[in-house]
Amino acid sequence: MRVTVRYGRTRLSHVVSASSGRHDERGHLFVGVDHDGVIGWGEISPQPTRIHGDPGEDEVLATLLEDVVARFLRLCETLGEVPTPGRLGAGSSGRPSDRFATSGLELALLDWHLRRSDLSLHDRFPARFAPAQIRSAPDEWARATETPERWRVKVGGPARTTAWWASLAERGGDVLLDFNAGAQSPEEVLDALAEAQQWSRVVAIEQPFAVGNLAAVAQLASRLDVALSLDEGVRTTKDVDLAARHGVTLLCVKAGRVGGWSKVEMMAARAKERGVEVYLGGFFDTSLGRAVTRVAASNLTHVPSDVGEVSFSSASLVEEFPGGVGWRPRTNLTVIFDRTDGES
Questions:
Q1: 9, 25 in Cβ contact below 8 A?
Q2: d(CA 60, CA 214)
Q3: Whole-angstrom Cα distance, residue 13 to residue 140?
Q4: Of residues 267, 283, 288, the one with CA closest to residue 107
Q5: How much helix, strand and coil, in percent to the nearest 5, is found in the chain?
Q6: Distance of alpha carbon 324 from alpha carbon 113, whole angstroms
Q7: Residues contacting residue 200 through CB under 8 Å, at least 6 positions apart
Q8: SS3 227
Q9: For tag attachment on the chain, is the N or C end more exposed, with fewer CB atoms within 10 Å?
Q10: Cα angle, residue 96 at apex, residues 338 and 182 outer, rounded to 5°
Q11: pLDDT tens digit string along 276-287?
Q12: How far apart are CA 306 and CA 319, in angstroms?
């Protein structure tokens, strides 16, 4: 059994600013599992630094190398075979960095098992819904920009001019206003909603308040005529239950944040039981990560999700690799870990 970790960085073609910071570059960790002549790859694209309870890149990497890989190799030894993705996630400590690190290795296991059985993502996640896309609106509009079904408009970054709002309206698509936990009061949220509604059809407010401030969420829910969504505040099935009890009607579920795709399916199922819609989000992933989000979304939700390719101005870090997930990291990336079986 060989585990490899490669690293690369990308630059976004269009800067996206939020109350929590500026998104312009992203680091990507690619985890490879190589056994019996089959290799599977997963991706983790965490935030650069810790924010809103999400771990930073260095913390995720340290947890991956010090804890999660060791747990995986012990599990392989105990079982005498390559574990299924869900078995790895079951042993997670639950720490945010562990969830992110586990999600990358779990995806590598999913890819490995699909390739071993000569299957594709579409076999694992049969399509039940037509694809629909949500895309983060940039700080500045390019001349040619694709039009998704929904725009994620970050609140709290640069002030939006009337020209910016007019450009958004020309492109069509409805709007989700994403506060990234930056609002201080319901009135602040309602004022931002009223401004946006002058230009576009706003369908949802997302993560208006700090993670855990469900009292303010419930207060706001009683005053809204659009959906209320949580993002950073959703990590476990318990969070789904609490959100539903406080008036939340939409959840953004991200594989990295919840601990992998087996957990995403559990969260989606729980949300359905509670009458809450879900959509699948991402972390500015490469085509490898987006391929899974796109196919899984077609199986789990009709709500616009992060299924479109992220536009990078830097060279691609991945290449097509038929079968399984369909992608792998390029060989020229930096190798930061390479271990076979019990080597130290």
A1: yes
A2: 27
A3: 11
A4: 288
A5: 35, 25, 35
A6: 8
A7: 151, 165, 168, 169, 173, 174, 175
A8: strand
A9: C
A10: 130
A11: 999 999 999 999
A12: 20
Instruction: State the Cα–Cα distance between residues 61 and 282, nearest whole angstrom.
Output: 18
Cα–Cα distance measured from residue 236 to residue 257, given in angstroms and rounded to the nearest whole number: 9
Q: Is the dihedral of CA 68, 23, 145, 7 positive or negative?
A: negative
Element (H, E) at 245: helix 237-245
Residues 6+ apart with CB under 8 A from 201: 174, 175
- Residue carrying structure tokens 């359905």: 272
Which pTM was predicted?
0.95
Tens-digit pLDDT profile for residues 53-96: 899 999 999 999 999 999 999 999 999 999 999 999 888 888 99
Query: What is the DSSP pairing of strand 21-35 with strand 2-18?
Result: antiparallel
Tell me if residue 31 falls in helix, strand or coil: strand
For residues 258 and 256, give the distance between their C-alpha atoms in angstroms, rounded to a whole number.
6
Domains of the chain: 2-122+315-340 (3.30.390.10), 124-300 (3.20.20.120)
Buried b / exposed e along 138-154 (16+ C-beta atoms within 10 A): bbebeeebeebbbbbbb
Q: Which helix H or strand E contains 33, and what residues bound it?
A: strand 21-35
Q: Give the distance, in angstroms, between the CA of residue 88 and the centroid of all CA atoms in the same chain.
A: 19
Residue whose tokens read 């271990």: 339
